[in-house]
Amino acid sequence: MVRHTTEIISSENRTIRQTNSEILKKALYRKVRYLFKHLFPTQMACLYLFTIGLSRKKYRALIYDIWMMVCPRLFKRRFIPSVAITALVSNT
User: pTM for this structure?
Assistant: First the structure.
């Protein structure tokens, strides 16, 4: 009787472990599928843009536009210096 109940418990534990491993496999599959579906094409497009794309004028403009979105302060230059209005117009 005791041997029979321990066999039942061990078989139940075995099935629980199998279902847990199946759930983990499905979760891992979803993550890998997400990576290949979304991130991999994006990485390949960036790799193309920043290597071969540098030779084409329209892609250089695209790289510049992306750079301006990421770091806009680096390319802002002041060609006209700030001057007080009293320096330009007399007091009268």
Answer: 0.42
